[in-house]
Amino acid sequence: MEKDTHVSASDFLPDVLTLSSLRQAARGCEGCGLFRRATQTVFGEGPEKARIIMIGEQPGDTEDLEGSPFVGSAGKLLDRALKDAAIDRSQVYVTNAVKHFKWEERGKRRIHKKPNMEEINACRPWLEAEIAAIQPEVLACLGATAAQSLMGRNFRVTAERGKFFETRWGPFLTATVHPSSLLRLRDSGERRQEYSRFVQDLRGIRARLG
After folding, report:
1. Which CATH architecture has domain 9-209?
2. What is the mean pLDDT of residues 11-26?
3. 131-144 confidence digits (pLDDT tens)
4. Mapping DSSP to helix (H, G, I), strand (E, B) and coil, where does residue 112 land?
5. Other beta carbons within 10 Å of 54
6. Are 55 and 141 spatial neighbours (Cβ–Cβ below 8 Å)?
7. What is the pTM of this model?
8. How far apart are CA 111 and CA 102, in angstroms?
């Protein structure tokens, strides 16, 4: 197997860390092997001075093809939940812990495959640079991969969901489920209940902002 020349996105960071320069530089990132099978880098999107950064795991199939985060089914569910929580989506910066789509082939479909810690760690410099450029008030981690990318492998969303933590990246960090987990629920009653919990978590973010 061909070895990666670079082991981290830090080798590709620009000298000046603005969202524009970061987005441009990330297009050529080869900090881990995921770039080889992905269509393109999917960088974060949103206002430069967003009060909230929402962090997912990685782009999905739709995001990989379109080049924008949270534009697939999970993104549409997030849009709906933000509206129900009275949070203006246009004021939220959305990104992922890993910027390339990791997938496996199943028939003619490309199926999401969970990134490993080596890939997450290799990509973390992009996420940390985004946070430094924006300086948000709240970091909202959607799912375990996003939360563990910043808080370590022992962080458990099931135990810490909805709580707020002071971190070196910003005044408040909180974690909740990824909207894709709601889409996988087959029971309609359970799906409604978990959606309500998700919206309640988002309302907690709104309340924290004041």
Report:
1. 3-Layer(aba) Sandwich (3.40)
2. 96
3. 999 999 999 999 99
4. strand
5. 29
6. yes
7. 0.94
8. 8
